[in-house]
Amino acid sequence: VVMGYESTVPVTLDDMLYCAANVARAGQTAWRVVDLPSGSYETPGQALASARRLVDEGGAHMVKLEGGVERVAVVEHLVSHDIPVCGHVGLLPQSVEEYGGYRVQGRDAAGAGAILADARALQQAGVGMLVVECVPATLTEQISAAMRVPVIGIGAGAACDGQVLVLYDMLGITAGQLPRFVNDFLEESGSVHAAVAAYVRAVKDGSYPAAEHSY
Length: 215
Hints:
Layout: H1 13-26, E1 33-35, H2 44-56, E2 62-64, H3 72-80, E3 85-90, H4 96-99, H5 109-125, E4 129-133, H6 137-146, E5 151-154, E6 162-163, H7 167-170, H8 185-189, H9 192-205
Helix pairs in contact: 2-3, 3-5, 5-6
């Protein structure tokens, strides 16, 4: 978003290291989860080398990767080397070109079953957290019921342990048409500080995401 790319695909490991290190210096009390960028975790060995850099140079506490059953070997390898992993199922931004754009995933029975199987496989492999993106709320309910680890939603309804929203979306400064799960908290609050505080309150009290933000 900040770098102006059309998707996350062009982002490099060095880009992520730069961003992660900045956050680490500014946010000493936060649990820092840093994405492994596209192309940096194709094999278990490559994933471990990339993750080590994010932890050692970027100050990450946990790394996040996209994909399901096809990533099990990578997750197991990272966990066996004491690298905490966050999984990511549903819509996968690094694979958005394969989808033909940002589209809701798991709408039919076959798609929903595959995503649920991915979530279970990642949990079995040892992930400590799971992000579910852009899926029907009913599917998120099934995933959350099946998981023993925290489930974090984005465009996935309210049946999660936590929510994430891109900051530019939350502040209403993203250009173009926005997905239905986005809410402009800045417009409602009047300042960036108040908008962030309003978002936190809305997630905690359950008013966001509401039915109109869900698929």
